[in-house]
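Tokens as discussed.
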């Protein structure tokens, strides 16, 4: 196989850092160019263990800048793209949708345009990493398949759905070699503590209130981030061009049951009396337009590419909590400064 120059956008973020690490380690003959704007969610600390590898390069890049995107394609002769850069938090999208339009829609189109301009011959893949939220919200029954109609309901999911449509449009209109993956909720190490699981771990540790939106009966389908990275690898490497693949682990939890489970796990690990942390649970004002249930049918990915999650939720959550307990400096760094303002803005009026 010819040497590949793989551009990974958003590689300093939560999922991106796991994908970068996997590709740097598994494909030493390729070059991985991690291009990231280093927003509040991007952190080069996430990649300290690979930063001196000879096949790893970091470039600070804002994908909303089309000329800067072109320059990266030209400079590194980019042959492949795994596109993860995005504004990713639903609550922030409710406060301010425009940044989501810029990074998630305009940024994606800038990357597609650069690929279209520079990929005139040779073997290429543009893998767009997307979410199950594009399908909308499920009732009590059923699973999202690749044929489920798009029905995004938050500004975040509307921006991701739009980016998916543009990626498909470039396949049909210009023949750009694209693939799309739509994954359920991820959890694991290096997860910014604005999302449910890392926020709850942080608050349990600090004996702070555990804010449950609404009744806590919304359902999410949780997947260990390393299993998402392995699915991206499988699809990027062996998936069919022009196709979308759903990624998920058949692991549905109501938010309240998940948080109770986490409380018990952490009470045990911290040597607290069972039931201590559950007392911190506080029901707060619901998220606007809160999607009720997400659940993924990953049969296509399993049957075509032989992918399966590698660990159970119990194992993954235990490993995740252990990582947070052993990396308090990382947590202290990302929760200093603007995190405090964010927390007070989002949670002080919620009770
Ligand atoms: P994250 O917020 O942790 O990281 C996003 C990264 O993108 C950060 O490093 C940030 O600096 C970078 N970024 C943001 N805007 C940028 C811009 N304009 N230019 C360049 N870089 C920019 O997000 P995540 O949770 O790791 O999600 C990564 C991708 O996976 C996103 O596309 C998201 O929609 C998708 N996804 C996430 C989940 C999940 O559960 N977290 C599930 C399915 C799909
Ligand atoms: O489904 C995939 C999506 O999962 C990704 O595309 C998104 O990038 C990712 O952020 C995630 O979106 P969610 O909105 O599902 O994740 P979040 O962790 O923000 O919330 C999970 C559930 O927990 C949701 O029902 C809202 C609830 N919640 C969240 C927070 C932050 C609370 O009850 N309290 C909280 O403080």
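Sequence:
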């Amino acid at each position: 196989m010819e040497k590949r120059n793989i551009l990974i956008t958003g590689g300093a973020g939560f999922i991106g850092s796991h994908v970068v690490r996997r590709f740097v380690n598994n494909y030493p003959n390729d070059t991985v160019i991690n291009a990231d704007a280093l927003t509040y969610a991007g952190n080069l600390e996430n990649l300290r263990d690979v930063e001196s590898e000879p096949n790893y390069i970091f470039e600070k890049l804002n994908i909303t800048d089309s000329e800067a995107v072109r320059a990266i394609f030209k400079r590194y002769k980019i042959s492949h793209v795994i596109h993860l850069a995005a504004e990713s938090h639903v609550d922030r999208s409710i406060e301010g949708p425009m940044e989501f339009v810029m990074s998630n829609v305009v940024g994606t189109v800038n990357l597609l345009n650069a690929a279209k301009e520079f990929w005139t011959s040779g073997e290429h893949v543009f893998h767009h990493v997307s979410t199950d939220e594009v399908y909308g919200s499920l009732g009590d029954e059923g699973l999202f398949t690749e044929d489920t109609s798009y029905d995004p309901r938050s500004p975040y999911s509307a921006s991701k759905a739009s980016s998916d449509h543009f990626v498909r449009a470039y396949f049909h209109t210009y023949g750009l070699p694209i693939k799309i993956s739509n994954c359920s909720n991820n959890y694991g190490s290096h997860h910014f503590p604005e999302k449910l699981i890392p926020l709850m771990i942080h608050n349990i540790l600090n004996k702070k209130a555990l804010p449950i939106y609404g009744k806590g009966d919304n359902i999410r389908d949780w997947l260990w981030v390393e299993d998402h990275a392995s699915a991206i690898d499988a699809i990027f490497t062996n998936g069919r061009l022009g196709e979308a693949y759903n990624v998920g682990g058949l692991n549905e939890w109501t938010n309240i049951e998940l948080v109770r489970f986490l409380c018990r796990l952490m009470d045990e690990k911290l040597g607290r009396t069972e039931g201590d942390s559950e007392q911190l649970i506080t029901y707060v004002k619901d998220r606007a337009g809160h999607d009720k249930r997400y659940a993924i049918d990953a049969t296509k990915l399993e049957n075509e590419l032989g992918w399966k999650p590698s660990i159970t939720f119990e194992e993954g959550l235990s490993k995740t909590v252990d990582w947070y307990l052993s990396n308090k400096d990382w947590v202290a760094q990302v929760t200093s400064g603007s995190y405090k303002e964010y927390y007070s803005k989002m949670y002080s009026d919620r009770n």
